[in-house]
Amino acid sequence: IAAITLANARGGATLDLATDCTYLLTADIDGAGLPAITTPITLNGSKHTTIERAAATDRFRILTINTGGDLTLNKLKITGGQTDDNGGGILVNPGGNLTTNHSTITRNITDGDGGGIANNGTTHLRHSTVERNTAAGVGGGITSVGALDVKKTRVYANTALDGAGINSEGTVRIERSAITANHAEDTSGGLLVEEGIATVTDTEVSHNSGAEVGGILANFDAQVTLRSVALVGNAARTARAGGLAMNPGATIVIEDSLVKNNTAVTDGGGLYNLVEMVLRRTKVVGNQAGNEGAGIYNEATGILTVVDSKIVRNTAAVDGGGIFNDAGGTVNLETATGTVVTENRPNNCVNVPGCAG
């Protein structure tokens, strides 16, 4: 605490913490266990270096980064934060920056948003883990209204009302990462893009669950692009869209990806299109729906374009094993590019021109 206070006063510092050491925080300093970061500060940990809130103390997060603060965490574990405010582990305020390298944000709790991290500034996660954090609101692992950049990072087993893994209302870029086994009480177990732009590349989004939408939900004016993404084994426990869905105003492009073994209790085991969705060079295989559209459900307002893709071996309990197109919806099935819809049960398509039922 004294070293951070001095670093803020002197315009920044690099602080080397001890190996095999837990720094146990016992006092609330303006809502956090450590002084707010207001200058460029690097905290270097090593093997088994942990910063933790003592369990018997008042509720507070671990770190707050204010305007002008630029915090880098190297090889550190941040754990035990608990707050009524946003950011159970770390809060990044507007004008603040956070970078984590080979670090773990785990077992932090908030009654608000962002169990692990609440980002209102700029956050970069590298080779890090965000796991087992809890938010009563959105973003069990991370919530972001600023710029979020995630590379080679695991977002695992977080819980929230909505957007249990990551909730984004700004710009988010996710590369070579994994969003797995997150649990939403309501909507979107893996990734919730409330608005703004999301680009997800070379990433696994798997085994997440929500009452509605297991994997990814694009809301309102969100623009989502998935490239080389494995959307696998996600589940909608009581409603639509095991793998991915959208709400009015959103657009989704999926390229070179795999949508496999997702399940929905009602419609859209794999994908649920409400507005505009484009699939290119993508496989939709082995998904299940308790009602209609096991592979893809296309709403009456939806425009679905499928290019050089395969929709195979999906199973719907009622109708449209491969694609179910609601009356009024548009499906452009570009078979000349190599698109195949086959071996789906109880049929391949409903209301889809150029597709054998």
Helix-residue proportion? under 10%
Strand content: over 45%
H/I helix tally = 1
Poorly predicted residue ranges = none
Largest sheet: 24 strands, parallel
Count of distinct structural domains = 1
Tell me, what is the CATH class?
Mainly Beta
How many beta-strand runs? 46
Q: Termini, distance in Å?
A: 68 Å
Radius of gyration: 22 Å
On the 0 to 100 scale, the average pLDDT is 97
3D shape = elongated
Task: Kindly report the CATH topology.
Answer: Pectate Lyase C-like
CATH architectural category? 3 Solenoid
User: Structural class, please?
Assistant: mainly beta
Features:
single chain; 357 residues; mainly beta; Pectate Lyase C-like; 24-stranded parallel sheet; 1 helix; 46 strands
